[in-house]
Write a structure and sequence with these properties.
single chain, about 525 residues, alpha/beta, pyruvate-formate lyase- activating enzyme, 3 domains, 5-stranded mixed β-barrel, 16 helices, globular, disordered N terminus, binds S-adenosyl-L-homocysteine, binds iron/sulfur cluster, binds FE3-S4 cluster
Length: about 525
């Protein structure tokens, strides 16, 4: 669908009045939003994805930001962080300057996350805080974008309750930011542009990356896994992969600019390339090509165990710039729970995959995500998660209490487990996670590790901090001049979440590539 067709079809409707109570918007929502619906979402997949490599800021908008400052608050995952980098690139292209201070900003964007209820509550809280600012300074523009904007219930709530908001746009159209801003300046009414269907792939978007040491690179967008608890397939649309040549070119450029570490991004990176109908090329092939680029480290996130194939394991085992840390979310150790989560693997299949990975990549660090308190999870099923954690020996984990998401199948399940029980389980699991983290740190004492130095430690200006290939945080004293470099550090003390060490020297380039 081109821009004009979108306009005509009602997908683009600027100019919605802010006095929401007075009007009936039901027709508007029908035409603009698809509320999260498994039935509708599963219908997707027929349309061909188009690649556009001619992104350009329309000349009439250049200079729009002259004398104006922008501030973007980012919530949620790396995908959102990276979208923020793209939006910052667009703002700068329009002539805006960045600011960290709310009071100085002429435009404030909240790039939101919908993954759990508390993520959404943070955003509503922030919108509440911004109200007095908007009253004091009606010229400041306030926008909501990101995953929450893709939810009908959220947009409804903003319309009814948060009249300080000037614009709402979703995850599929951030490249339309110049047009959306233009509309917001031109009209006194709330501008809403949310596309329910996923967008095409837009290449050549400008980016202002956070720092010049590590960079995120999208390799695919969306997710088709439809885990029954998860909102992402609705907020991010269907899986679509960037072409290998575009990814490789972007990473070569980053290497040439001096970046040392790349993290490939996707909600389910193991499905990379499955949507290509002209070539057989998967994540294993991509990693094998990236191995040949002169950049110190390449990581990826996030893996789905189901699609983690032998090809990829074989390539990762070659090492080089491919690090030996894999984040492999398991969610639960119970096959029965995994089944109703729609994860499409059993406890045994997961353990088999872990065995294969450990055999191929000796000393690999595995980390994971776990949800406790899925509807009707029994004590025994929770214990299976605890034993799986030990059996795998994960080095750390992100742990969550299940949060029902409107429109997902799990949200309709009856749940007989009281919140106190869920909280107690989370506490026990977190204790285990702490113990295993400490256990993973201990053997480093006396060892020499390679650290990519990121900057001063958060707690102490005189101490520098960086990460090892296996994502262990290391603190040590060294001259500021080593920031951005790979250095050798001798570990003197292991803590639960970090290592302390003594700086030995900068790693010579030949060593890195050997
Ligand atoms: N695509 C990634 C993760 C995306 S969300 C993957 O599949 O691994 C990050 C984590 O949030 C998930 O791994 C899961 O542990 C958690 N999560 C997702 N939906 C949730 C929900 N409704 N309640 C609680 N945690 C959830
Ligand atoms: Fe959500 Fe990840 Fe499952 Fe996709 S694979 S539905 S993003 S948990
Ligand atoms: Fe949140 Fe959207 Fe990421 S829901 S976790 S910001 S994909």
């Amino acid at each position: 669908m081109n821009e004009e067709q979108r306009l005509n079809s009602g997908l683009l409707k600027p100019g919605l009045s802010k006095s929401a109570e007075e009007k009936d918007y039901s027709h508007y929502f029908e035409s603009v939003y698809t509320p999260p619906s498994l039935k509708d979402a599963r219908k997707r997949g027929q349309e061909e994805i188009k690649y556009h490599d001619d992104f350009k800021i329309d000349e009439r908008f250049i200079g729009m930001g002259k004398g104006r400052k922008f501030l973007i608050r980012t919530y949620g995952c790396q995908m959102n962080e990276h979208d923020t980098e793209v939006m910052a690139g667009i703002f700068m292209g329009l002539g805006y300057e960045p600011t960290d201070t709310v009071e100085d900003a002429n435009i404030i964007l909240l790039n939101t996350c919908a993954i759990r209820e508390n993520a959404e509550n943070k955003v509503f809280g922030e919108l509440g805080h911004l109200k007095p600012l908007k009253q004091r300074n009606p010229d400041v523009l306030i926008g909501v974008c990101g995953c929450m904007s893709q939810e009908e219930s959220v947009v409804n709530k903003i319309l009814k309750t948060y009249d300080q908001v000037d614009m709402i746009f979703g995850t599929h159209n951030i490249h339309r930011l110049p047009h959306i801003l233009h509309e917001a300046y031109m009209s006194k009414e709330m501008v809403i542009e949310v596309w329910s269907n996923e967008g095409d792939i837009i290449e050549n978007l400008p980016k202002v990356r956070h720092g010049n040491i590590k960079a995120w690179v999208n390799i695919m967008y969306g997710c088709d896994k439809f885990c029954t608890y998860c909102i992402v397939p609705y907020t991010r649309g269907k899986e679509r992969s960037r072409r290998p040549a575009d990814i490789i070119q972007e990473i070569r450029q980053l290497a040439a600019q001096g970046y040392q570490e790349i993290t490939l991004l996707g909600q389910n990176v193991n499905a990379y390339g499955k949507d290509f109908d002209d070539v057989v090329y998967g994540l294993g092939d991509l990693m094998d090509d990236l191995r040949k680029i002169d950049i110190a480290r390449v990581r990826f996130t996030t893996s789905h165990p189901r699609d983690f194939d032998d090809d990829l394991i074989e390539v990762l085992a070659k090492g080089g710039n491919l690090v030996e840390h894999i984040h492999l979310p398991v969610q639960s150790g119970s096959s029965a729970i995994l089944k109703i989560m729609g994860r499409i693997y059993t406890r045994e299949e997961f353990l088999l995959l872990v065995r294969k990975i450990k055999e191929a990549i000796p000393g690999v660090a595995l980390t994971t995500d776990i949800i406790v308190g899925f509807p009707n999870e029994t004590d025994e099923q929770f214990e299976e998660t605890m034993t799986l954690y030990e059996e795998v020996g994960f080095e750390t984990a992100f742990t969550y209490i299940y949060s029902p998401r409107d429109g997902t199948p799990a949200a309709k399940m009856k749940d007989n487990i009281p919140m106190e029980v869920k909280k107690a389980r989370l506490q026990r699991l977190n204790q285990l996670v702490n113990d295993y983290s400490a256990k993973a740190m201990k053997p480093y004492e006396g060892e020499i590790v390679e650290v990519l130095v990121e900057g001063a430690s958060k707690r102490n200006d005189e101490v520098l901090a960086g990460y090892t290939r296996k994502s262990k945080l290391v603190n040590f004293k060294a001259p500021q001049s080593v920031i951005g470099k790979l250095v050798n550090v001798k570990i003197t003390a292991a803590k639960t979440w970090s290592l302390d060490g003594e700086f030995l020297g900068v790693v010579e380039k030949e060593e890195v590539m050997s």
